[in-house]
Design brief:
Elements (H helix, E strand, L loop, with lengths): L2 H21 L13 E7 L4 H14 L3 E6 L6 H6 L5 E3 L6 H11 L4 E7 L12 E5 L6 E3 H8 L29 E5 L4 H10 L10 E4 L2 E2 L5 E3 L1 H10 L4 E5 L8 E3 L1 E3 L11 H5 L8 E6 L9 H10 L2 H10 L7 H9 L3
Parallel strand pairs: 1-2, 1-3, 6-13, 7-8, 7-11
Antiparallel strand pairs: 3-14, 4-14, 5-11, 5-12, 9-10
């Protein structure tokens, strides 16, 4: 056998062992009961390929189940649930207050949330993490969430002693000390802005008034020409004194991502793919599924069995095969499975 062929075989075998090892600690799917009927799914259109893999895998164990998919957009998910059309609401973000209000006004209790996957690392439209950037000439290496709260917000819900408005407030000296921090970000009322507020500002809506906000640039048909995330990074690249949050997919040599800590005294974590997969990076994003479960009641058997499959070795391997979204950790899978009881 030629050396190149041998190396190829060894690589494939090694990759197969790695794949098995990665999922060996996940619980296999073992049906609690055989179920039948139709499961209706509404929501996130970015999950269409993943849903197909989940359905194919689930039907090997539950052949009498059929699926009726309406994956139009995350914006339709919760409405489908409280209008009585959906068994499962697939989301590309967490529920917004107005969506939660629609559900609670209908049923008198909150929808049940389960985390099915981790958002993609660098894929457009697949719930990538927020990354904080500085200009390449900026010496800053790291920030904590309370510091970000004090920079981007005004209420300081995470406990910072005062607002941070200059680079000197962050300890930078010499030419940096008196320079104001110029902020570049997604629109505050966008999905990205709502997430960033929840993750770094305790959910406050009282933003720093000096933020330069960006929306997608679209054509006459509404098709995105230039994503807001790209515009944010381009603006930061031209501003030595800027600070921004965007997606790692937009990074260029003219900007630099920085490490983030939950609070002072905890580790500063780089926004790497590995740290998103192991869920140590503080600004990663979940892929949640919401269901209707009345207080004190068991989850409807068809829904419970399908969620148990998603939160199993086979369901998480399907996420890996899909290739964009990322599997959960075994610890988080176990936590989510407890919600099925």
């Amino acid at each position: 056998m030629k050396l190149t062929a041998l190396l190829t075989v060894l690589f494939i075998l090694g990759a197969s062992r790695l794949f098995a090892q990665d999922f060996a600690s996940f619980p296999p799917y073992v049906p609690e009961e055989q179920v039948k009927g139709t499961l209706t799914v509404w929501g996130n259109d970015g999950m269409a390929n993943l849903e197909r893999l989940w359905e194919e895998g689930f039907q090997k164990y539950q052949p009498q189940i059929r699926f009726d998919d309406h994956l139009y957009s995350t914006a339709t998910a919760i409405g489908g649930l409280y209008a009585g059309h959906a068994d499962l609401a697939y989301m590309g973000r967490d529920i917004w207050p107005v969506e939660a209000l629609g559900f609670t006004k209908t049923f008198g209790y909150d929808p049940t949330r389960l985390v099915a996957a981790t958002g993609a690392y660098d894929v457009e439209g697949k719930t990538f993490p927020m990354v904080v950037f500085v200009n390449k000439d900026n010496p800053l290496k790291q920030l904590s969430l309370p510091q970000l709260d004090a920079i981007f917000g005004t209420e300081r819900k995470l406990g910072a002693a005062k607002n941070i408005r200059t680079w000197g407030d962050l300890g930078l000296a010499a030419e940096w000390a008196n320079q104001p921090i110029h902020l570049y970000a997604y629109a505050n009322d966008s999905g990205f802005g709502v997430f960033f507020s929840a993750a770094t500002m305790g959910g406050s809506t009282r933003w720093n008034c000096e933020i330069h906000q960006f929306d997608n640039i679209t054509d006459a048909k509404g098709k995105t020409i230039t994503p807001a995330g790209r515009q944010i990074v381009d603006a930061l690249a031209a501003d030595k004194y800027g600070l921004a949050y965007s997606g790692i997919r937009y990074a260029t040599p003219d900007v630099r991502p920085i490490s983030i800590a939950v609070r002072e005294g905890t580790p500063y974590v780089e926004p790497t793919r590995e740290n998103v997969i192991n869920r140590t990076y503080p600004l990663l994003r979940d892929i949640p599924i919401y269901i209707d479960r009345a207080p004190g009641k068991r989850i409807e058997p068809r829904v419970r069995e399908f969620l148990a499959f998603i939160l199993s070795r086979e369901g998480q391997q399907a996420i890996s095969r899909e290739g964009d979204y990322l599997p959960l950790t075994p610890t988080l899978v176990e936590e989510q499975r407890k919600l099925l009881k």
